[in-house]
């Protein structure tokens, strides 16, 4: 620090240097996951052939042994690895739940359009992708981008003046009153039809109960598994996508667990 006299004033000027090291705190969290690649399926098949299967007549014992067997194999070929992931600060609009909901609905409408290829899902997707098209067209225009994000994150809560008029309120009330009257007429007509029918007294003992279940075959199992969602929980021993790819190797064990579940339990 030094003091110097300024010739333009009667005061001394103080000069000093400050060394600052800003402390930026980044939040980090531990993530545990298995590394599964194209060669994991072959390693799984080899390990499965060397792992003995323990027969049992109890569905619980079969399920416990199957889970422990799959866990032992996955721990050998694709062990859980812990990784520290830094949670970098994101833009405010990326943390907004409304934007996340709109993005989810947009992806949902796009999947519906690709699956059905109908005009109605196409129109829904077209409306959902309205803001996405604005952002893509004005990627270098900061004013348009921030105004669009402001509309998404801070929507206007005021209704147009024409919607607050007395006529619109009356139309709104008349619409729902007509709906309620129509529902009441349908209920009254159904009650009148039910009164004209003879009552059917059926006792529980007269019902035809199912004494047995038909066992699930391999074709039904594969069809059911392939129609499952690809989402995976942390409690799943085998990730869903990997489980679908190796189903042909463990289908016999899965069928055995399902069959004994039908045989050992009583369903009323």
Give me some keywords for this one:
two-stranded antiparallel sheet; flat; 268 residues; transmembrane helix; 4 strands; membrane; 10 helices; transmembrane; single chain; mainly alpha; 3 domains
Strand order of the largest sheet: 1-2
Q: Which percent range describes the beta-strand content? A: 5-15%
> Gyration radius, to the nearest Å?
33 Å
Count of strand segments? 4
Structural class by sheet pairing and helices = mainly alpha
Q: What is the count of DSSP helices, taking H or I runs of 4+ residues?
A: 10
Order of helices and strands: EEEHHEHHHHHHHH
Write down the domain tally: 3
Low confidence ranges: 200-204
Give average pLDDT, whole number: 77
Basic shape: flat
Summarize the structure.
This protein has 268 residues and is mainly alpha-helical. It has helices spanning 40-50, 59-77, 97-116, 119-128, 130-137, 142-153, 166-196, 218-226, 240-245, 247-264, and strands at 2-5, 12-15, 27-34, 80-87.
């Amino acid at each position: 620090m030094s003091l110097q006299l300024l010739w333009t004033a009667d005061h001394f000027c103080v000069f000093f240097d400050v060394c600052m090291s800003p402390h930026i705190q980044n939040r980090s969290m531990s993530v545990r996951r298995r590394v599964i690649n194209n060669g994991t399926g072959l390693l799984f098949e080899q390990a499965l052939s060397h792992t003995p299967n323990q027969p049992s007549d109890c569905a619980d014992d079969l399920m416990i042994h199957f889970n422990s067997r799959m866990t032992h194999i996955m721990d050998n070929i694709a062990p859980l690895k812990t990784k520290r992931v830094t949670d970098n600060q994101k833009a405010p609009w990326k943390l907004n739940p409304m934007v996340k909901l709109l993005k989810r609905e947009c992806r949902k409408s796009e999947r519906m359009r690709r699956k059905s290829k109908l005009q109605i899902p196409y129109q829904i997707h077209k409306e959902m992708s309205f803001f996405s098209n604005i952002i893509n067209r004005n990627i270098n225009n900061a004013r348009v981008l921030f105004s669009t994000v402001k509309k998404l994150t801070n929507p206007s809560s005021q209704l147009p003046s024409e919607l607050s008029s007395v006529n619109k309120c009356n139309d709104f009330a008349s619409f729902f009153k007509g709906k309620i009257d129509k529902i009441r007429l349908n209920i009254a007509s159904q009650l009148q039809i039910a009164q004209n029918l003879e009552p059917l007294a059926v006792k529980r003992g007269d019902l035809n109960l199912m004494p047995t279940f038909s066992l699930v075959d391999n074709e039904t199992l594969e069809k059911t598994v392939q129609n499952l969602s690809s989402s995976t929980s942390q409690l799943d021993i085998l990730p869903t996508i990997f489980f679908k790819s190796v189903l042909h190797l463990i289908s016999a064990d899965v069928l055995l667990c399902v069959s004994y579940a039908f045989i050992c339990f009583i369903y009323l």
